[in-house]
From TrEMBL:
<dbReference type="InterPro" id="IPR013792">
    <property type="entry name" value="RNA3'P_cycl/enolpyr_Trfase_a/b"/>
</dbReference>
<feature type="binding site">
    <location>
        <position position="30"/>
    </location>
    <ligand>
        <name>3-phosphoshikimate</name>
    </ligand>
</feature>
<feature type="binding site">
    <location>
        <position position="327"/>
    </location>
    <ligand>
        <name>phosphoenolpyruvate</name>
    </ligand>
</feature>
<keyword id="KW-0028">Amino-acid biosynthesis</keyword>
<feature type="binding site">
    <location>
        <position position="170"/>
    </location>
    <ligand>
        <name>3-phosphoshikimate</name>
    </ligand>
</feature>
<feature type="binding site">
    <location>
        <position position="323"/>
    </location>
    <ligand>
        <name>3-phosphoshikimate</name>
    </ligand>
</feature>
<dbReference type="GO" id="GO:0009073">
    <property type="term" value="P:aromatic amino acid family biosynthetic process"/>
</dbReference>
<feature type="binding site">
    <location>
        <position position="319"/>
    </location>
    <ligand>
        <name>3-phosphoshikimate</name>
    </ligand>
</feature>
<keyword id="KW-0057">Aromatic amino acid biosynthesis</keyword>
<dbReference type="InterPro" id="IPR036968">
    <property type="entry name" value="Enolpyruvate_Tfrase_sf"/>
</dbReference>
<feature type="binding site">
    <location>
        <position position="399"/>
    </location>
    <ligand>
        <name>phosphoenolpyruvate</name>
    </ligand>
</feature>
<comment type="pathway">
    <text>Metabolic intermediate biosynthesis; chorismate biosynthesis; chorismate from D-erythrose 4-phosphate and phosphoenolpyruvate: step 6/7.</text>
</comment>
<dbReference type="GO" id="GO:0003866">
    <property type="term" value="F:3-phosphoshikimate 1-carboxyvinyltransferase activity"/>
</dbReference>
<feature type="binding site">
    <location>
        <position position="124"/>
    </location>
    <ligand>
        <name>phosphoenolpyruvate</name>
    </ligand>
</feature>
<comment type="subunit">
    <text>Monomer.</text>
</comment>
<keyword id="KW-0808">Transferase</keyword>
<feature type="binding site">
    <location>
        <position position="96"/>
    </location>
    <ligand>
        <name>phosphoenolpyruvate</name>
    </ligand>
</feature>
Amino acid sequence: MTTDRLTIIPPGHPLTGRVSPPGSKSITNRALLLAGLAKGTSRLTGALKSDDTRYMAEALRAMGVTVEEPDATTFVVTSSGELTPPDAPLFLGNAGTATRFLTAALALGRGRYVVDGDEHMRKRPIKPLVDALRSLGVAIDAPTGCPPVTIDATGAFAENRVVIDAGLSSQYVSALLMAAACADAPFEIALAGADIGARGYIDLTLAAMRAFGARVEQPTPASWRIEPTGYTATDFHIEPDASAATYLWAAEVLTGGTIDIGTPAGAFTQPDAKAHDVIAAFPSMPAVIDGSQMQDAIPTIAVLAAFNDKPVRFTGIANLRVKECDRVRALSTGLNNIRPGLATEEGDDLLVFADPALAGQNLPAAIDTFADHRIAMSFALAGLKISGITILDPGCVAKTYPDYWDALASLGVEYKAG
Ligand SMILES: O=C(O)C1=C[C@@H](OP(=O)(O)O)[C@@H](O)[C@H](O)C1
Ligand SMILES: C=C(OP(=O)(O)O)C(=O)O
């Protein structure tokens, strides 16, 4: 996407057709890392090729792993099982998964690694994970509490148990879980403080680890025991991305169309598939929606809520403030830009004051996406019903769904550049 602004032309007809979402970002970046930690060749099919997974693949290449791309949805990863220190800092853009997962895995490497990202990633907290790794005797430093992170690794942890506060991000737990199978003794992870937001991401991590030969048990809801198996190279198929699917589910109900995404909602293992039932209830979505177990779907549902038959309060979304941008603020700003008074923040809750009469109106609004793919993709939905919605920096969708604008176009949506 070369244009710096894209105006959506409301199609004026139901969106009907077939569009498959790309592979899951979460599962692709887990599988890439685990394949990089396994000795031998792993073939990952159905994979996502986007900014986030490219950063992970590039980082592995910089550490001596061969990552081939025989086609648009396959990675073939061949590794010695060791990630050798790179010549330069690893640049991971704004990929939270790549940044957090590599930080823990490299703490069991040998030598110096620097994990860094772009200006947005440099504002996303990683201190709880850094503190946990330091408590294991790892020489690790992140002076700002955000990347860059410098790790001087010796190949081992000095302790066999760690306590982690995952209140800000479940990715800290996933990162420790995946690293722990490479330790030299059985390892225990225990949760401190608040519960994890989206537990479903931990389940994704455990499933990927087991597919690569790990043995993990969960003695209590707040602890895990990981055997020191290391990982075994394997062939692994990746399901489509459930968060990407939410935009298509929403486009379908908003326009009264039928979009075949090729995968039934019940077949996804990712947490955001829970959004399907909520979206299917449109235009009578519930008055209170708890976003804690489907966080990445909240921008989609919040924009849809503007057209609901009653206002919606979103709860359990405090950690949306530390994603690619402060999504609670970006959503309230964008909705109020469309029509003042359409949304408000109450503490960390977001209230969207629904108005079905918005559909069909001409309400010119330039939506600041704050470089956040989900803000761009969800506000495009408003443009399916309201004329004048312009998405700024539409290319930011490349983080997880580079073909998003083409996918909508294939359903008959047209755009004006600028
Ligand atoms: O583990 C994962 O793959 C993810 C976990 C979630 O992040 P947090 O754990 O930081 O909430 C989610 O928002 C992110 O897109 C992907
Ligand atoms: C929060 C997200 O990404 P990440 O944390 O993986 O950068 C997301 O994709 O919505």
